[in-house]
């Protein structure tokens, strides 16, 4: 890996293109490197994971609305077009709209993969737009795998090197450039074209973190799909010879200077050198539970603690000692009253660790629908327990959250339960059970089990088998087989149920 310094340059300094971060990202995308077998296998896992969580969300209103928008934009004449989760495989739409609809379906339940470092990310958000473009242009599985691998590589590099949330910038500002780079690899584009597309994507996908603050709405699921859609459009424009604001990262009126740490900022982004294998996807991890990633380990701990605590009504207070990120984003440190509201939206509840721990303690389980049901959130005993739970930042857990050593890196915390009888109960957990270093790491068998569980009752067993047969052969798929990477439920959802301009 090569460390690249990123800092602000005055226009008079004339920072040359090869010295700009966008160019270095583009050079990685344009470098044709063979995908190593273990990386290809993980790509297959994540394609399966995305499909399962998308199937479970097909009838949810945000997904239905996005799908209705997509079908209003059929594929252009002479193009194969892209499939949409939930619709028959012969229904084909324009790739940017397939990226939109499928991206919303994948993201809606907050249930696919994650990578946390200086910032947050869900690298699986790269897959819908890259797959849509591959289908639309009649490309094969080998090209698709290369594109996805590049998308993961760039997003992980940016998330490791540049913190966005500190400045209240939403993490999709790293996703737009990573998708553009992934599309560049997919299509075999030149460094020049990808350079322009990466900068356009950065410029157009920089938004605020209010998407994940206060009364969180369906836009939380829409935001990454929006970034994928705009990245497809950015690549299309760049392929037609159109340029971008440059240098987008380092310019004196650019991204770093005015939206991040300012004119004196220094960041280091590490990218693979020429010919170096792309392995970043192996550093990412999926979710066993449908909730924000920093709650995964604490759900597992709560499930174990529940039986030890006996009568939960005797609890006076639960304090979760955890990292700055967990405390500020999903904990009481966020200062959001909605995180304690029984009428809060699903999107808000999955960003409330007090709620999540309360339900996991009571139920000994976590379910992507039942755990968020309005009647579940409003249960008086749940509300009473919920409001006894607080988070505090702990320097050691913050240090471990940012640790470079995988054996040290942690996303959990220490839980102190005070009861009105007896001594406090104290326990801690570093990583989720499903994490590569957890009690039950996810492998192919676990991805398949999760897929079967989420598609049961939505997709027939025959359709599940058909999809999996295609997915496990991903690197060898011929162009006419790529359209099989979608799911058609037993009762396809109706289209046209929502109305708008289109």
Explain the overall architecture.
It is an enzyme of class 4 (lyase). Residues 289-472 form the MmgE/PrpD C-terminal domain. It catalyses: (2S,3S)-2-methylcitrate = 2-methyl-cis-aconitate + H2O. Its EC number is 4.2.1.79. Monomer. This protein has 502 residues and is an alpha+beta fold. The chain has two domains: 2-283, 2-methylcitrate dehydratase PrpD (Orthogonal Bundle); 293-429, 60s Ribosomal Protein L30, Chain: A (2-Layer Sandwich), CATH 3.30.1330.120. Helices cover 43% and strands 7% of the residues. It is built from 19 helices and six strands. The strands form two sheets. The chain has a four-stranded mixed β-sheet with strand order 4-3-5-6. Strands 1-2 form a two-stranded antiparallel ribbon. Strand 5 (413-419) and strand 6 form a beta hairpin. Helix 5 (127-136) crosses helix 9. The longest helix has 21 residues, at 141-161. The mean pLDDT is 95.
Q: Kindly estimate the percentage of residues that lie in beta strands according to DSSP.
A: 5-15%
- How many discrete structural domains? 2
For the record, the CATH class of the largest domain is Mainly Alpha
Q: If you consult CATH, what is the topology of the largest domain?
A: 2-methylcitrate dehydratase PrpD
CATH superfamily of the largest domain: 2-methylcitrate dehydratase PrpD
Number of DSSP helices?
Answer: 19
Radius of gyration based on Cα positions: 22 Å
- Unreliable sequence segments: none
With strands numbered from the N-terminus, the spatial order across the biggest sheet is 4-3-5-6
Write the element-wise H/E pattern from the N-terminal end onward: EHHHHHHHHHHEHEHHHHHEHEEHH
Count of extended strands:
6
GO molecular function: 2-methylcitrate dehydratase activity
Protein name: 2-methylcitrate dehydratase
Domain MmgE/PrpD C-terminal: 289-472
Domain MmgE/PrpD N-terminal: 20-265
């Amino acid at each position: 890996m090569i460390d690249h310094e990123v800092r602000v340059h005055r226009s008079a300094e004339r920072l040359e293109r090869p010295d700009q971060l966008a160019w270095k990202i583009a050079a990685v995308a344009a470098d044709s490197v063979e995908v190593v077998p273990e990386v290809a296998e993980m790509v297959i896992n994540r394609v399966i994971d995305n499909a399962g969580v998308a199937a479970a969300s097909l009838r949810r209103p945000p997904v239905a609305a996005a799908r209705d928008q997509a079908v209003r934009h059929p594929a252009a004449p002479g193009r194969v077009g892209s499939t949409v989760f939930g619709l028959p495989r012969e229904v084909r739409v324009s790739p940017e709209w397939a990226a939109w609809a499928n991206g919303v379906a994948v993201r809606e339940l907050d249930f696919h993969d994650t990578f946390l470092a200086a910032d947050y990310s869900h690298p699986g958000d790269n897959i819908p737009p890259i797959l849509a473009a591959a289908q639309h242009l009649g490309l094969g599985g080998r090209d698709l795998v290369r594109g996805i691998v590049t998308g993961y590589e760039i997003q992980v590099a940016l998330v490791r090197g540049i913190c966005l949330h500190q400045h209240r910038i939403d993490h999709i500002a790293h996703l737009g450039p990573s998708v553009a780079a992934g599309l560049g690899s997919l299509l075999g584009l030149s460094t020049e074209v990808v350079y322009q597309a990466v900068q356009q994507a950065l410029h157009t996908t920089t938004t605020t973190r209010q998407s994940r603050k206060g009364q969180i709405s369906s836009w939380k699921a829409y935001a990454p799909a929006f970034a994928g859609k705009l990245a497809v459009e950015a690549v299309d424009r760049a392929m037609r010879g159109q340029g971008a604001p440059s240098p987008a990262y380092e310019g004196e009126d650019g991204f770093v200077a005015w939206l991040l740490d300012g004119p004196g900022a220094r960041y280091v982004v590490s990218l693979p050198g020429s010919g170096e294998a792309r392995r970043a996807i192996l550093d990412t991890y999926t979710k066993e539970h449908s909730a924000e990633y920093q709650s995964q380990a604490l759900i597992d701990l709560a499930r174990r603690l529940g039986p030890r605590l006996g009568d939960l009504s005797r609890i006076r207070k639960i304090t979760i000692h955890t990292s700055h990120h967990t405390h500020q984003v999903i904990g009481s440190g966020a200062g959001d009253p909605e995180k304690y509201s029984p009428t809060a939206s699903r999107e808000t509840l999955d960003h409330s660790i007090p709620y999540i721990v309360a339900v996991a303690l009571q139920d000994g389980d976590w379910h992507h629908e039942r755990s968020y049901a309005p009647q579940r959130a409003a249960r008086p005993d749940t509300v009473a327990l919920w409001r006894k739970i607080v988070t505090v930042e702990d320097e050691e857990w913050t240090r471990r959250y940012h640790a470079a050593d995988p054996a040290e890196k942690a996303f959990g915390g220490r839980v102190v339960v005070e009861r009105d009888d007896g001594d406090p109960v104290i326990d801690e957990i570093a990583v989720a059970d499903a994490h590569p270093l957890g009690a039950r790491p996810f492998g192919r068998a676990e991805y398949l089990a999760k897929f079967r569980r989420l598609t049961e009752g939505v997709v027939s067993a025959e359709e599940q088998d058909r999809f999996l047969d295609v997915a496990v052969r991903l690197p060898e798929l011929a162009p006419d087989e790529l359209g099989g990477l979608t799911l058609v439920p037993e009762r396809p959802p109706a289209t046209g149920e929502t109305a708008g301009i289109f």
